[in-house]
What we know:
By secondary structure, the protein is mainly β. It has one helix at 7-26; strands at residues 52-61, 64-73, 79-89, 92-102, 112-119, 125-134.
Amino acid sequence: MNWKPPLSASVLALVLSMGVAAPSMAADDESGQKPPAEAQTEPKPVEDNKCVSIDAGYVKAGKGATYHVTLKNGCERRLRCIVRVYHVDSGGPHKGESTLILAPNAAGNAASKAYVLKVQDMGGSANISHGCKTI
């Protein structure tokens, strides 16, 4: 009769062997280079989505309707924001994209800009995304 170790003993042995090997794998190699996970990365541009408030809603326009997306800058720096809207109503899908330049908050009305998407109905489902960066 052949004896097989229980599965839990095999798993325990595997886990212990990984724990012993892991510190040696994380050390610098002989050439002094660091593994890719620890390599220095270049700083990414700061995104300022936390400075921007968003308001969206329908406005009746003649026989049709429009969907307005308004961004307002709450920070004291100028922002470039890309707004993307995907709207579906009974007339089908509508999508649009625009770049809005928002002045600093102290500039008053210039700190707020709107993107207008023409739609067929005053109802439906809309997905909005925006990304802002300091300029």
